[in-house]
Amino acid sequence: MAKPCNRSPSPSLLVAALMAALVLLSPDGAPVAEAVMCSATQLSPCVPAMTSSAPPSALCCSKMREQRPCLCEYIRNPNLRQYLTSADGRTVMRVCGVPYPTC
Q1: Cβ(93)–Cβ(43) under 8 Å?
Q2: Bifunctional inhibitor/plant lipid transfer protein/seed storage helical domain spans which residues (predicted)?
Q3: Closest to 78 measured CA to CA, from 40, 35, 43, 49
Q4: Nearest by Cα to 64 from 78, 54, 77, 49
Q5: 3-state DSSP call for residue 49?
Q6: 93/101 Cα distance (integer angstroms)
Q7: For residue 75, what is the enclosing H or E element?
Q8: pTM of the shown model
Q9: What angle do CA 65, 70, 72 make, to 5 degrees?
C-alpha cells in the first residue's frame, strides 16, 4: 500500500493554479493590461502643438496618454527634451489631461 504524501504543493504550483483560476473566472470583456511600446515617433501627431501655440488634436492627446509611461525616458533624451519641457509641450500635456512627469 502506498504511503500518503504529506508534502505541501510548491509555491510556483500554487501561483500557476491561481493564475489559471483567474483566467477562467474573469469575465469575457475584462480589460487586459498591455505593455506600452515606447516610441517617440508615436508622438508625431503632437509636433505641431508642441512647436507652436496650436491646440493638440484628439489623436495627439490619445497618443500622449498612451505614451505617458515613456515620458521620463523622452525627457532624459537630449534630442527630445526640448519638445516636452517647453511651455508648449507642457500645455499639450495639460490640455490632454496628462500630468507632467516627475522623473
Answers
A1: no
A2: 38-103
A3: 40
A4: 49
A5: helix
A6: 10
A7: helix 71-76
A8: 0.65
A9: 115
At position 81, the amino acid (one-letter code) is R
Cell triple for residue 65? 496618454
Cα 55 → chain centroid: 23
d(CA 80, CA 89): 11
24-70 pLDDT, tens digit per residue, is 333 444 444 457 799 999 999 999 999 998 999 999 999 999 999 99
42 vs 36: CA distance, rounded Å:
11
